[in-house]
C-alpha cells in the first residue's frame, strides 16, 4: 500500500479546521485541565490535527502479541520467589521507592493477603523502528495506564474532521477513506476488565451490588480520561465508582476486621475493585500515612488493580531481565518466544556481570545509541544520549544498577500539526503506539481467569524532543491513518 501524503490546507481552511477541532473536543470531552489549573476551567487535550501514518501490519502485530505480554507479566508477578531475588538487589540501590513498595508488600503478606485474584490494566508501548519497519517495545506499564478514555475520542475526532471536509481546502471532500482511519474502543474494552473482576468478586452474574474505588492523585490534570472509563463502567455494566485520593481513603472507607471486606462509608457500598491512578511515583505518597493506606488496601478483600507485586513486575529492571530467553521460557511456551522477542531491542544491566561490564563501557563509548532509565514511571525521568556519561560519573558506581541502559529506537518521522493549549505547531513528529490489555488471575494457583486485548492509543511528540508523556507536557494524543 502506498502512503497518502499529509493534507495541505490554505490559511483559511486551517483556521476553520482548528476551530472545528477545538469545538468538537470540548463538546465530546476530549479535554484536559491546563497546567496550574485552579477551577473547573478546562481546555481541549493536546492532539494532532491529522491522523499520523502507521502501517496496518505493525498495529496488528502489536495487538496480536498483547495477551502474551499480559500472561508473561502475570506469571512474573506470581513468581514471588524469583521477584524477591531481584528486589533484594534493587532495594539496595533504590530504597526510597522500589524498596518501599516491596517492603509494603512484605508487610501486607505478614498481615495476610485475603484476596487471591489480581486484576491488571496494562499498556505495552512501541515505536515503529525506521530501519526494520517493525514495531519495537519501549516499555510495559503495569500501573495507572492512561489515555484509554481519551484515545477513542481522538479517532472519533479525526473521523469527524475527515467527514466534515476539514482536511480539504475546498471544505467538501473526504481526504481519507473510512477504512484508512483506525478505530479504537479502548475505554469500552478496558472497563470489561473491571466488569469481569467485579463479577468474579461477587461470585455471580449480577454485578451492580459492589462498586469500584478509583484512587487518584490530587490536582490530576488528566481526570477526564479517568471519567470516561467511569462513565463507560456505569453505562455498559451498571457498575458505580467512587473517587478518593490516597490521603482521603482512610476517611471514606472502612475495612471489616473479620471478613476484610472494604466499604465506602458515605454510601455504605461494598468495594469489589480498587483501581489505582496514583501510587506509581514517590511524590504520590505525601506522608507515611499514605503508605499505611496502601498497606491497608492491599490486605483488604477487594481485588486490586494492580497489586503491589504486579506493580513491581512492571519495573524497568524486570523488563531488562525479561530480554533473556531462558528466563522467559520458564513462563511462556517455546513456540511463542520468538514472537515476543521480535519486539525487543537490547536492554543492558549496569551491574558487575559480563553483560553489565560491557554495558558500562558502551555507555561511555557511544552514549548517543542509548537511553538510561531509572525505576520510575510517568515520564520525565530518563537520561538520554550524550547526557549519560556525565550523569553516571556523578553517581557512585555501586548505584548504577538502579538504572537500565536501553538501545534507542529510531522511529519514522511524519509531518503533522499539533494543537496544545491553543497554540499550533507544524513540525516533524514521532509516534508511540500503546496497546492496552486486561488480565485477571489467581495469584495462589496461577490460573488465568480472563486475558484480553483492549485496543490502542497513539501518542506523538516533536521528533526534536526525547520524552513522550502527554500529561507530563511532552506530547499529544493522536490516531492512526493506516497504510
Ligand atoms: P516512562 O515510564 O516514564 O513513560 P518510558 O520508558 O516510556 O518511561 O520513556 C519515556 C519516553 O522516552 C518514551 O515515551 C519515549 O518517547 C522515550 N523512549 C524511551 N525508551 C526509548 C527507546 N528505547 N528508544 C527511543 N525512545 C525511547
Ligand atoms: Mg511507564
Ligand atoms: Mg512511557
Automatic annotation (TrEMBL):
EC code: 6.3.2.3
Stored Pfam families: GSH_synth_ATP (PF03917), GSH_synthase (PF03199)
Family matches, as InterPro entries: Glutathione_synthase, Glutathione_synthase_a-hlx, Glutathione_synthase_C_euk, Glutathione_synthase_N_euk, GSH-S_sub-bd_sf, GSH_synth_subst-bd, PreATP-grasp_dom_sf
Subunit structure, as described in the record: Homodimer.
Binding, substrate: 123, 143-146, 220-222, 226, 277-280, 459, 470-471
Binding site for Mg(2+): 139, 141, 377
An annotated Gene Ontology molecular function: glutathione synthase activity
Name of this protein: Glutathione synthetase
Keyword entries, A-Z: ATP-binding, Glutathione biosynthesis, Ligase, Magnesium, Metal-binding, Nucleotide-binding
Keyword Ligase: yes
Amino acid at each position: 500500500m502506498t502512503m497518502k501524503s499529509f493534507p495541505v490546507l490554505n490559511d483559511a481552511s486551517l483556521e476553520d479546521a482548528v476551530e472545528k477541532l477545538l469545538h468538537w473536543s470540548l463538546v465530546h470531552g476530549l479535554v484536559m485541565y491546563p497546567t496550574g489549573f485552579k477551577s473547573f476551567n478546562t481546555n481541549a487535550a493536546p492532539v494532532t490535527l491529522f491522523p499520523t501514518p502507521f502501517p496496518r501490519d505493525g498495529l496488528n502485530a502489536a495487538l496480536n502479541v498483547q495477551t502474551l505480554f499480559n500472561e508473561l507479566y502475570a506469571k512474573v508477578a506470581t513468581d514471588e520467589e524469583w521477584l524477591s531475588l531481584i528486589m533484594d538487589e534493587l532495594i539496595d540501590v533504590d530504597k526510597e521507592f522500589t524498596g518501599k513498595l516491596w517492603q509494603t508488600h512484605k508487610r501486607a503478606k505478614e498481615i495476610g493477603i485475603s484476596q487471591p485474584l489480581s486484576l491488571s490494566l496494562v499498556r505495552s508501548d512501541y515505536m515503529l523502528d525506521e530501519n526494520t519497519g517493525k514495531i519495537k517495545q519501549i516499555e510495559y506499564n503495569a500501573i495507572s495506564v492512561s489515555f484509554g478514555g481519551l484515545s477513542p475520542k481522538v479517532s472519533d475526532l479525526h473521523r469527524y474532521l475527515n467527514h466534515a471536509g476539514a482536511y480539504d481546502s475546498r471544505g467538501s471532500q473526504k481526504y481519507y477513506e473510512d477504512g484508512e482511519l483506525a478505530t479504537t474502543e479502548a475505554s469500552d474494552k478496558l472497563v470489561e476488565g473491571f466488569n469481569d473482576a467485579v463479577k468474579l468478586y461477587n461470585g455471580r452474574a449480577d454485578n451492580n451490588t459492589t462498586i469500584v474505588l478509583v484512587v487518584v492523585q490530587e490536582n490530576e490534570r488528566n481526570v477526564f480520561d479517568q471519567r470516561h472509563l467511569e462513565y463507560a463502567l456505569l453505562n455498559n455494566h451498571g457498575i458505580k465508582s467512587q473517587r478518593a485520593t490516597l490521603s482521603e481513603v482512610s476517611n471514606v472507607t472502612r475495612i471489616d476486621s473479620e471478613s476484610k471486606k472494604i466499604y465506602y462509608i458515605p454510601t455504605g457500598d461494598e468495594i469489589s475493585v480498587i483501581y489505582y491512578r496514583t501510587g506509581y511515583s514517590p511524590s504520590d505518597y505525601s506522608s507515611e500515612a499514605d503508605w499505611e493506606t496502601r498497606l491497608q488496601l492491599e490486605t483488604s478483600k477487594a481485588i486490586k488493580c494492580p497489586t503491589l507485586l504486579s506493580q513491581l513486575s512492571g519495573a524497568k529492571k524486570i523488563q531488562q531481565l525479561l530480554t533473556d530467553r531462558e528466563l522467559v521460557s520458564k513462563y511462556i511456551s517455546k513456540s511463542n518466544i520468538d514472537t515476543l522477542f521480535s519486539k525487543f531491542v537490547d536492554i543492558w544491566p549496569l551491574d558487575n556481570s559480563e553483560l553489565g561490564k560491557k554495558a558500562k563501557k558502551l555507555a561511555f563509548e557511544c552514549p548517543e545509541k542509548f537511553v538510561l532509565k531509572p525505576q520510575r514511571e510517568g515520564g520525565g525521568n530518563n537520561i538520554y544520549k550524550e547526557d549519560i556519561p556525565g550523569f553516571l560519573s556523578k553517581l557512585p558506581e555501586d548505584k548504577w544498577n538502579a538504572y537500565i541502559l536501553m538501545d534507542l529506537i529510531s522511529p519514522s518521522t511524519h509531518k503533522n500539526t499539533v494543537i496544545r493549549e491553543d497554540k499550533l505547531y507544524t513540525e516533524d513528529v514521532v509516534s508511540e503506539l500503546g496497546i492496552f490489555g486486561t488480565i485477571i488471575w489467581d495469584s495462589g494457583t496461577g490460573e488465568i481467569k480472563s486475558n484480553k486485548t483492549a485496543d490502542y492509543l497513539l501518542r506523538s511528540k516533536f521528533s526534536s524532543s526525547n520524552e513522550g508523556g502527554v500529561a507530563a507536557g511532552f506530547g499529544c494524543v493522536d490516531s492512526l491513518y493506516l497504510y
